[in-house]
């Protein structure tokens, strides 16, 4: 097996499923304050191999590659990415709201769809960091910051739920209000706050 490009020997049974082996590997990494970022099987992405072949035994794998990163470094990098990305996401949501307000429903809906993946990524990031803190795996996130992360996650989830209700009601004006005030408006203040958290992660405290 190759870990971060370096060949290593890892004990396992050839009859173990790849999924169970990776779950064990992931648990061991988490205990060390690390996480698995990517898995390749004979050069292909792990998820693609599973989609093609279903359950895969470790003994059937020729070359297994695993990319592992420290949780603190990953936190810092992810927050830096979010600091750069969230202003673009906020502008995209504001543009969608503006299009809906002027009656361009198709354009507004298209812009919203483009933003949904970004909103989901941001929610997973915020809630995931809060969960790491709860598990005691992120000592650089203090209790007050963990509560801020949970509050941001709740705000984002509530904003998305409001958008869903407006879409179900087929009310583009209400949807525009939800996008502009519940999502875009709230996101506008996040980059500065996330930069503060990123700096703490960089210091390790």
Q: What order do the helices and strands come in, and which of them pair?
A:
Elements lengths: L1 E2 L2 E2 L10 H14 L2 E8 L2 E2 H8 L10 E7 H31 L3 H30 L8 H26 L3 H16 L2 H14 L2
Parallel strand pairs: 1-5
Antiparallel strand pairs: 1-2, 3-4, 3-5
- The first-level CATH class of the largest domain is given as Mainly Alpha
Q: What value does the Rg take, in angstroms?
A: 21 Å
Strand order of the largest sheet: 2-1-5-3-4
Major β-sheet, in short? 5 strands, mixed
Task: Describe the structure in your own words.
By secondary structure, the chain is of the alpha+beta class. It has two domains: 2-71, no CATH class; 72-203, Four Helix Bundle (Hemerythrin (Met), subunit A) (Up-down Bundle). It is 68% helix and 10% strand. It is built from seven helices and five strands. It has helices at residues 18-31, 46-53, 71-101, 105-134, 143-168, 172-187, 190-203, and strands spanning 2-3, 6-7, 34-41, 44-45, 64-70. A hairpin with a 2-residue loop joins β3 and β4 (44-45). α3 (71-101) packs antiparallel against α7 (190-203) and α4 runs antiparallel to α5 (143-168). The model has no long low-confidence stretch (mean pLDDT 84).
Compact overview of the structure:
This protein has 205 residues and is an alpha+beta fold.
List the defining traits of the structure above.
single chain; alpha+beta; Four Helix Bundle (Hemerythrin (Met), subunit A); 2 domains; 5 strands
